[in-house]
Structure prediction request, 304 residues.
Amino acid sequence: MNQKRILNCAITGGIHCPSMSPYLPSTPAEIAQQAIDAANAGASTVHIHARSPKDSSPSSSLEDFQTIIDKIRSVNKEIIICVTTGGGLGMTVEQRTHIIPHLKPELASMNCGTINWGLFPLAEKITDWKYDWEKPYYERTKAGIFQNTFADMESILKIFEQNNVVPELECYDVGHLYNLKFLMDSGHITRKLYLQFVLGINGALGSTPYDLMTMKQTADRLFGEDGYEWSAFGAGKSEYVVCTQNLFLGGHVRVGMEDNLYLEKGVMAKSNAEMVEKMIRIMREFNFEPMSPAEARQTIGIRK
Prediction:
């Protein structure tokens, strides 16, 4: 078994808010710096969402994304930057994708199906909110969905193809793998798949060892064991558990403050670099090593 794995770091995402952690990178400058630090710590790729410099809310602004990417590239020319098209809650597909033709990233995420996105329990756990947008942001998820229809996915894949962007295919449930099988059979995807198993979101598949095995076995049946590359993580406390299991299945891993705010029980992560360093320690305990960005490009099929 190849003992090298892609180590992806998801810097800030669109789930957590500043009231949940004083360490969450919440401005373009902070996101960029933490991405640089994660790369220096050993990450192969960094996954980028933008935040507004005014109130730290999820942003689809080209200016905010450009600020982040320009700062990263001014320091690190090699790290793979994966730009989200997931955006933040309530954003339209147009808002989530308009940045792609301008930025032309090497890698960008695409969500592979519509799910419930039940973040509303978080609104009951916090009493002291830093910004006015935060509590309503979570409360409205009880009656909302995270929309990713076939029309949406076909549109995104076309934008990726036109701009030479490799898709990182975010799969939150088993049905998303069948969606991808349909998109492949209908000619909308013609390259080897790079999957990201996103486990543990309230409204989608859980994050137990059985759930990860279900995703892996289904992908094997649909695409063949050698027909795809994949990464996996669990949201929250299951982050490192799922990542460790996935190493032994042959897959890649993702950590970061988009998915989990804690380094261990009761101990908040102070940076994304800390989370990368912990994952590398776990990997090395079992004789695994993180890939360099160049090795990750070769594995995923990215032409720099």
